[in-house]
Amino acid sequence: MKNRFSSYDIVCSTTELQKLIGMRVNNVYDIDNKTYLIRLQRSEEKSVLLLESGNRFHITNFEWPKNVSPSGFSMKMRKHLKNKRLESLTQMGTDRIVDLQFGTGEAAYHIILELYDRGNIVLTDHEMIILNVLRPHTEGDKTKFAVREIYPQNRARENTVSTLDNLRTILEGAKVGDPLKKVLMPHLDYGPALIEHVLLKHGFTNVSKIGKTFDITNDINELFVALQEAEVIMENAKKEPSKGYIIQKKEERPSTDPNVDKEYFYSNQEFHPFLFSQHSSQPFQEFDTFNLAVDEFYSTLEAQKIELRALHQEREAMKKLENIKKDHDTRLSALEKAQETDKQKAELITRNQQLVDDAILAIQSAVASQLSWTDIDTLVKDAIARGDPVATHIKQLKLETNHISLYLTDPYTDSDSEDSESDSENRKETLPPATVDIDLALSAFANARRYYDLKRSAAKKQQKTIESQGKALKSAEKKTKQTLKEVQAITNINKARKVYWFEKFFWFISSENYLIIAGRDQQQNELIVKRYMKANDIYVHADIHGASSIIIKNPSGLPVPPKTLNEAGTMAICYSVAWEAKVVTNAYWVLGEQVSKTAPTGEYLTTGSFMIRGKKNFLPPSHLILGLSFLFRLEDGYIDKHNGERKVVANDDAASLADSEMSRDEVEVEILDESDDNKDEAIDNPNELQHTSVNDDDVNKDNADCHIREGTEEGNDDNEELLKDKDNEEGSDSSDDDQKFPDTQIRIQHSEGTKIKVVAEPVVKFENKDENEEKIVYLGDNKPVVIKSKQKQKIKEGKAASQKNVIAPYNALNNYKFRVKLTPGTGRRGKAARTAVSMFLRDRTTTQREKDLLRAVKDEQLARNLPGKVKLSAPRLQALHK
Question: Which positions ≥6 away from 767 have C-beta within 8 Å?
């Protein structure tokens, strides 16, 4: 599978991206340590340029997941490139190096993108002095790629096959038998696909070899014409944008039903700006531009990997089924053959009864004479040498088992010429000769009967095998169908699951339906306070060193009920050092407007540090008890059916809540499949969670300014730069994905005592009010959804599209179907999470759709929200362990 640009691709992309010239840099983001996004803007026109070190560069329309905290390299690019125009975008020579210049004169900066070998991205000033480099290294003895070094501009090479004489020199220097394409590749910067295309077009196949199928004297002129055509194609690519093509491979999906039409899956293999000769017979997709093709190829790459893994699993399941069928057929064939062999041996003994009895008597007499086995063997050989008619049929003595092997032939053969034709019709079937083991303790008749008994025994086994084969194959086919179904279900889950903005934090939904989020480290603590916390929101913090910053989203501005405050306090304490130390302590809350980033002295606090002004409202001590559960998200098509069923329950709403609930109907919900294959946020190391601390040494706890310092005492340059940039970014980059959810309203309603057919959790709705409206609906516990008077009809459709696991205070999960209790302990959180899921899967009330969704959850997703070492508690947990 192709995964990086060739020189021809670079030429085509460079030509197409000339339309970006004159656009200004709005911001810079990083997807991972080698992939960066540059957001460009000109009036109302916007574009996002993606740069991946060593692989690609193109405009992207796909929404890539950006890192929560920008890397140091991103920050450096933001510092120097922000608000500067893209002045030029050129290829260095014909090499795979691209130079992007931002700004002019002494204010100019260059981004050098290297797309060969291990790749690199270099930031330089107008004099090409390196300001930052993604991969510092040294080439050869002198050329250094490091900060304050000068980037070598003359390193880009040119094509060396420019004349016929140059080409002849290259070919004559090659070894006899070397492939023609391999010889040309190091001297041409067209890329392997374009070279292969022109070679095929001029009659040179992939098997053309120097001195064998390719003659230098006779074929060099035609080869030079082919290479000139490649040069023409390259020059045309520099003049106008090229179309795009994705070359695909047709894969057949396995099926257990031969009557069902075959299903096919088309996997993307390569992307090109030209439909080359070698690809003309393969399936392909055509795009208006090369950039569109590349963006489509890479944006669907993860989904393709999921599909291919599923295809592999399906084929493995079918292979197991075929092996079972093959094994059954082999066993039946072996039993049939054994029957036939035993029957023939019995018949041969019967037809040679006198000869067999004589052989048995001769060996028995020798044994009775107390001759040694060696002497008996010598005796038999001497008899064979004399031509004894009995001895000549003895092939082997097996005296250790009291057996001999006789070579027996059918005495009734077709060679009897004197037999008449009528006599031949009455003759018995001619048997082929065979070597037969004879038991010396039995007579010839008894030996024949023994072989007949073996034949009957094999016949019985065959009958039993045939009878059991139907059941076994039916069971295997059923299991294979179930496996194929599960694989497809999990594949659909992994492809379709959406990851929402709050999932990058610790989060849960309180009993009164408030969304509560918490930072995983000091950078996230900084982010949720600066970007997501509004003046009416509640800030909660544990009164202990090393706690997360907790935000209760409160869009209504009404007082938050005490139960939600206590649950948020429990979360704050559990995500602190109190969990490991098993210490019960207090938490407190303040309004969002009381939290500031500036100290009274004017000092700008480091990452994750805040100043709290005014009174802190302390909460009662909380027990260190969390719960693990699951919520399920409805498909978008079913969201409108549940509009208005949930809203935040504030103190002023509590009295009217009972009056607003209508009669409860039975709910039937069919649960679909969907999950997340997002590995970027996986936490494998329990220590990866970084805690925060509170500095209250010089502050009165009841009525004073409180300085909260989280993480390290001093931030590094990148962190300080990050904070300054984020202040600027809030106003300038309102189009960021995270801004799509300014406020979140949640309402959970449960009904009691209603029997349901299909278990489903009630809907939790997140609703965005801006023009890019996006709705998210979740299912929570096994209680039916409360339906208002206009929706009293039974809900027959409500497909769950994906699942999300809630680490939350245990009392917030009272009405949830799937839940286990977590307390501080010694168990690994990954193992504890897997045990919990295993218990949910074994529950008899768990539907098949729920099982599919639960199986699709990755281990890292399960464990990443647990606070540390845990003890798992649940009914029938011991039975599961046993």
Answer: 745, 773, 775
